[in-house]
Design goal:
The complex is a heterodimer. Chain A is mainly β. Chain A contains 1 helix and 14 strands; from the N terminus they run αββββββββββββββ. Chain A has 2 domains: 91 residues, Lipopolysaccharide (LPS) transport protein A like domain (lipopolysaccharide transport protein A fold), CATH 2.60.450.10; 68 residues, no CATH class. In chain A, strands 1, 2, 3, 4, 5, 6, 7, 8, 9, 10, 11, 12, 13 and 14 form a 14-stranded antiparallel β-sheet that branches. In chain A, strand 9 and strand 10 form a beta hairpin. The radius of gyration of chain A is 21 Å and the shape is globular. Classes of the chains: A mainly beta, B mainly beta.
Chain lengths: 210, 206
């Protein structure tokens, strides 16, 4: 019995690193008929066109200008960028996508819309980091989360897609029905699926009295 | 008596001589009707304003009425401002002097001399006056960074430009494969431009 358990553990231990080295999806991009691609001796190719669609696994980027580095495997998109990542749709002005590490940086009026099982949420920010495999998000600057029931403002955000927990830091403000909660430098942890939240730090709470 | 002796000596000589001629006589393949002459080696140099614009060296040359066929072609060199620009090698080449046209046929390789690239094609037609060329049959351009294959290539020596069309595919050293409607390649800068619609696929290198 012990031998069987040991064998099972060994197999599991061997499978874990194999999963880590799982084959990377091919990166494919298509360019509309009006488009063109410029390249040469350098490592970068520049692609322009009415519609450029970059696809890798479950991540899709739609843009009008793309600079791709064939050595570093980094794609940079400019213009009206739309990133579709599973159940997330993100709009931004600029995208930095590290295709080897499934990591993206988004800048310029970033808006994340996500259809979750419980409810739809939106996250607005100046700058966003996205891990495309886990769909985890870090956001910075003028962060706003809206889950249709409440709006939360903060300076920075860490959001886990798996747990639905969002942590906001810095100057905070939460508006919910007739209540407003604010903090000059606090931490707010909310579960966007359950609608619960916890705030630490100096808090001001205002509620409307009829 | 002297005459008799002379004919007695000449008869066997004539007899054997006749036999020898009979034994070495060969049947020649019929030559084309417009065949004119065969030359051992030739070097052709075209000049423009005193500077060479085109040169050709070959070992066997057959001159026909309207063109010259070169076999064992050593090399054909085109010049830009008197400097060697492109070098061409092939199995055979036909030079149409009146039309200022050279046709290189069979395993054609065109080498960039200033900038390193190779163009491989089954047939290349070069117009010496315009300094333009086109390939016939699926052709490939190879540079140090990428490889381009297409059904048709058109080139201009003056503009240092190649345009590839038809089933175009570009493969670069980092595993990127690009398909597009056409490609412009400048062999001076090694820059290229692919026109849409474009599909590119980047495979991870194992």
């Amino acid at each position: 019995m012990k031998k069987k358990a040991l064998l099972l553990l060994t197999i599991l231990a061997l499978m874990l690193p194999l999963k880590a080295f799982a084959k990377q999806d091919n990166l494919v991009f298509t360019v509309s008929e009006d488009g063109e691609m410029l390249g040469g001796e350098g490592d970068e190719v520049t692609v322009t066109g009415r519609e450029i669609v970059v696809t890798q696994g479950k991540t899709k980027i739609i843009t009008q200008k793309l600079i791709y580095n064939t050595k570093t495997k980094v794609a940079r998109a400019f213009g009206e960028c739309i990133i579709i990542n599973d159940n997330m749709t993100i709009n931004s002005e600029e995208v930095y996508f590290d295709t080897e590490n499934n990591y993206a940086k988004l800048t310029g009026q970033v808006k994340i819309s996500q259809e979750r099982e419980e409810k739809d949420i939106t996250i607005d920010a100046d700058f966003v980091e996205l891990w495309t495999e886990t769909k985890d998000v870090k956001a910075d600057g003028n962060v706003v989360i809206n889950d249709t029931e409440k709006i939360i403002y903060g300076d920075t955000l860490e959001f886990s897609d798996q747990t639905g927990i969002a942590k906001l830091f810095g100057r905070l403000k939460l508006i919910e029905e007739d209540r407003t909660l604010s903090s000059p430098d606090g931490t707010l942890e909310t579960n966007v699926d359950k609608g619960t939240y916890k705030v630490t730090g100096q808090i001001e709470f205002i509620t409307r009295v009829n | 008596m002297k005459r008799k002796l002379f004919w007695l000596m000449m008869l066997p000589v004539m007899f054997f001589a006749g036999c020898t001629r009979e034994s070495v006589e060969t049947q020649r393949e019929p030559l084309p009707s417009d065949y004119k002459q065969v030359v051992d080696t030739i070097k052709v140099v075209e000049r423009r304003e005193g500077l060479p614009s085109f040169s050709l060296e070959a070992k066997t040359v057959i001159e026909f009425n309207d063109y010259i066929e070169f076999n064992d072609l050593d090399e054909v060199v085109t010049y830009s401002d008197g400097n060697p620009e492109l070098k061409l090698t092939s199995n055979t080449a036909a030079w149409y002097q009146r039309q200022n046209r050279l046709e290189a046929i069979g395993d054609v390789n065109l080498f960039g001399l200033e900038e390193e690239f190779i163009l491989q094609a089954p047939k290349v037609v070069y117009q010496t006056l315009d300094e333009t060329f086109k390939t016939i049959g699926r052709s490939t351009i190879i540079t140090s960074s990428y490889r381009v294959s297409a059904d048709k290539l058109d080139g201009s020596v003056k503009e240092k430009l190649l345009i590839a069309r038809g089933n175009l595919i570009l493969i670069n050293e980092d595993g990127m494969e690009v398909e597009g409607s056409s490609l412009e390649f400048n062999w001076e800068t090694n820059d290229y431009k692919v026109k849409g619609p474009i599909t590119a696929e980047i495979k991870p290198i194992d």
